[in-house]
Amino acid sequence: MSIHRKPIGERIDWLYDVARRYSAAYCDPEASMARERHRARHPTAIAVLKCMDGRINIPIATNTPPGIIQPFRNLGGFFDLGWPHLGEVIEHYVHDRVRSGQRVLMFITYHFSRGEPHRCCAGFNYHTDQAIAHVFGVKGQVEHVFGRGHATVYPLVCGFETDEDALVLHGAGGATLDVSTLGTDETEASLRARLQPLFPDMPAAMLADLARLVAGNVAHVAEVRKLDRQLDIEHREWMICVGRGFDFLHAPNLALIIGPYSPDLADPIRKAGAIIASNMHKGRIPDDGFLLLASSPYQDIGSDRARAELKARFMAHFAAEVIRRDLPDLAPRMTVHAAVLNWATRGLEALD
């Protein structure tokens, strides 16, 4: 039976088991050394600004080891670097990477479906043109903050086609490269030749690392085409996740993930709740309940973990109150959990 069809209690138990297995795999010595090898060969730091939609899993779609790509998630891919918390988090991330001698390739993404308009981004009411206009605006903000010369931080607008998990890269002069059109005979060298005219100002080492990501996506798309994904590409989310630290959610359409960035956090929570209610109403998921999970990561034990606990509890309480106030029919079916995430082990620790 699909996990989406099981009773809510079994779904929640399954979720924590997935989190435990993800942490164990992340901490495995072979996995740790694989990340080190990858960073040695591909030194560019990769960040992705993306929608909360669980289908958008860039590490899986590019065959990249877990823990390499830094995600920032919010409803519909809505971001504004003027938001105080978001601006600080991204600035700290960039400067940490720069101090370690890395450049940063920042994917600013939107998503869409070629097969069915209502599998496009619900956050933009399925209007992909509006999503594209927004992410180009975010690109301009990144350039305003980190420079237009792109020598250290390179913002790249990228579409994500959810039916096949294919990237669509937007380059100079409005040119694009749709990875779904590429054959598996492409090499990283041939991909660099394709990419260089699109990104003529991209540093050579970064271009090589981008070509590796594209090569991974070519291989992933080829595998996806062998599968029947009709169920996977429908919206069937049964969780609302608020905060950070949800990389363990591998499978598509499990969760609507809301980063703690917007000054108006109630708006994405309300919209996510409406999507859950719609999924129940249309029979995509059982109507016996959904999970509201708040998480905050911590680096160190002591005060850092204690503050993460307070943040997670606050977000859980805040989100639950939004659901109770604005979606009273959905609220009785809500189970609320708070957790902290050990960043070193990627271990999810449930709070009482």
Automatic annotation (TrEMBL):
InterPro entries: Carbonic_anhydrase_sf (IPR036874). It comes from Zoogloea oryzae. This is Carboxysome shell carbonic anhydrase.
